[in-house]
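How a chain folds remains the central question behind the approach discussed here. This step matters because it turns folding into a mapping between discrete strings. The sequence in question and its structure tokens are set out directly beneath this paragraph.
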Amino acid sequence: MSIPDSTRDRNDDPPHKERIGVGSPSRLDLIAAGVGIVLAGGFLEVAVHLFRRHVLHGFSYMSVDSVWMTPLCALLLMLPLLGVMALAREAVPRRVGWRLIVAVPTAAATFSLLFLLMHNKLHVAAQALLAVGVGNSLGQLAARVPLRTRSMVRRAAVVFGAAFACLAAGAPTWQRMREGRAVGALAPLPPGTPNVLLIILDTVRSASLSLYGYSRPTTPNLERWAARGVVFQRAYSTAPWTLPSHASMFTGHWPNELSADWNKSLDRGQRTVAELLSDRGFATAGFTANLFYTARESGLARGFQRFEDFVTRPRQLLLSSGAGQAIQEYRSGWKPARWGNVRKHAGLITNQFLTWLDKPRRAPFFAFLNYFDAHIPYAGSEEWRTKFRAGGGPRDDYDAAIATLDGALDSLFRQLERRGVLDQTVVIVASDHGEMLGEHGIREHGNGLYRQELEVPLLMWGPGIPAGVRANQPVSLRDLAATISDLAGAGDAGVPGASLASTWQDGKADSASQVFAWVTRPRNVEPGTPVAKGTMVSSVEGSLHYIRDGAGMEQLFDLVADSAEMRNLAGTTADSAALQRLRSITHFLLPGSR
């Protein structure tokens, strides 16, 4: 009695050999295995991103479009391997059986997932070996049950292929429908309600702006526009890095009252000014170039009917999967791939905003623009880099980036003026934090609370704001939410803080909030930086700046007599009373004080 080929194929051959016959893979099986397994791996990566974002409230540094970009990237990276296997199958069909066509895509998908999960925890070579082992094991299992494997891979290709098609087509459509519903539901606003435009120059300190007396002509255009309104000479951020500073500006709460921190996004515990104005009837839109801590997953997008962060470009597609990140890191000398996100320069932010603005609308708008050109690596134009290249150091590049931004802002304001929009708009220009350029032996930001990281530009003009005013008292960016609400005609709307309009309406120096700043210790901090000792707090009162580090060491500086903050007055008899007062009012920022 003869034994059917399918039975021999399943039971008679050793696991490491495969016969040509019933159950052996066809071209369609090869394609189905590659597509099904790789798309399944891509969706597992998507699940990891969603878990980090929505359950852990952390960061994946990915676009919301990663739900379809990640599996697409995985599939595109798999295509060359599928091509090689198809050619090998034609040349030596006995060598390309179920074991190989299951093992290769499984290993590729496993490596991509491992790189995502075990980055900086397990050496990439170990990840690759582990992925090959998993692929080989599943390949051997597939070779033992070829008919069942064929059925499974074909079903997987259909199911995951359909899911991918639905997400790729549905995600953008859903976003457009969501925006349309939100805009259609806006309540009418009283005639004469102004627009509000909030511009954040990421990582720009006031000390490097000619608007504030800097020797280099970094902001000649901004100086001209600033003459239309109020310039705050001493504005301070609530944190020396992006997310808590933005969160404080958007909610009116101090950073220590918010969830937003190094590894946590802004939760829904406090409403944002965009939510308040959207409920009131404003058309709201955000356009951000900081794709690390102001993207949609940061929590700052709440209340914006339109919010544009990541751009859909080939490089961004590559970075949407673990395997793509591994390729990018290998090409860049194993630098973290997320820092290779497609950079959005000032011109792109302006164009995105103006494209949105030019669409027909019936409501006044509240728009938020984040420009990232002055963030490291500094993105100044070649023209300004040439002009400022005294020593070719970071300071020259930083100044060139600020001068480039100055030109971009001038172009933006001129275009708004040509559209007849500028005179109806309250314009607020600020920064989220400053930058250290070697002062106190420190570079960049987020690592201390010296004035270079906290003292930022703040200027505003438009309806209801007097021209040619310089406000000299210290003010906190915490008050921006209340100020925006006030200038938009919404009153305080329950927003914490005080409107800075009081500084020109009644001239009271004590009408604004106290100036506080706060920073926690990052996970990967350089030893020797101030924040390495733990949570730091600071306060500014009059000319005095008080800083307390995580070890309890205190510093007190007179910002008028010692603008470089080189002489610590803490412990001297001259300012002991002031030190005690600042120590007392800053206590609520310390860990465990709430």
